[in-house]
Amino acid sequence: MRKQEIAIITLALWLITIFAFMLLFHEINLEIFSVLGLIGLLVIVLFMEPKYVMPDYLRYIWYLIGGGIVIFAAILVLKVLEVLAE
C-alpha cells in the first residue's frame, strides 16, 4: 500500500470512530466532530509528509487544513460570544 492509501483509510477509520462514540453517548455535535476530524487530519499529514520534497497533493491538503482552521476559529469566536452573552 502507498502512503496516500494508508492515510485515507486511517482518516476514514478516525472519523468513523468519532461518529461511533457520538452515537454511543447520544451526543451528535457537528462542532466537536469537525474539530476532532481536523486534529486527525493534521496528525495524519504530519506523519505522511516527506522531509525534503513537497508533492502536489500535499499543497491541496494544506489548503484544506487552512479552511478547517478558519472554521475552528469561527466556532471558537461563536462560543466565546455565547459565553459573554450570558
Features:
single chain, 86 residues, mainly alpha, 83% helix
Number of domains: 1
Structural shape: flat
Rounded average pLDDT: 86
- Distance linking N and C termini: 52 Å
How many runs of DSSP E, i.e. beta strands?
Answer: 0
Q: Please provide the ordered H/E string of secondary-structure elements.
A: HHH
Strand content: under 5%
Could you give a short account of the major beta sheet? Answer: none
The total count of helices amounts to 3
Compute the gyration radius: what is it? 16 Å
| Class per helix and strand makeup | mainly alpha
Query: What is the percent of helical residues?
Result: over 70%
Which spans have pLDDT < 50 for at least 5 consecutive residues? none
Q: Topology of this protein?
A:
Elements: H1 3-24, H2 30-48, H3 56-85
Helix pairs in contact: 1-2, 2-3
Can you put this structure into words, describing what you see?
The chain is 83% helix and 0% strand. The model has no long low-confidence stretch (mean pLDDT 86). By secondary structure, the protein is mostly helical. It has one domain (3-85). The protein is flat. The protein has helices spanning 3-24, 30-48, 56-85. The protein contains three helices and no strands.
Describe the structure in brief:
This protein has 86 residues and is mostly helical.
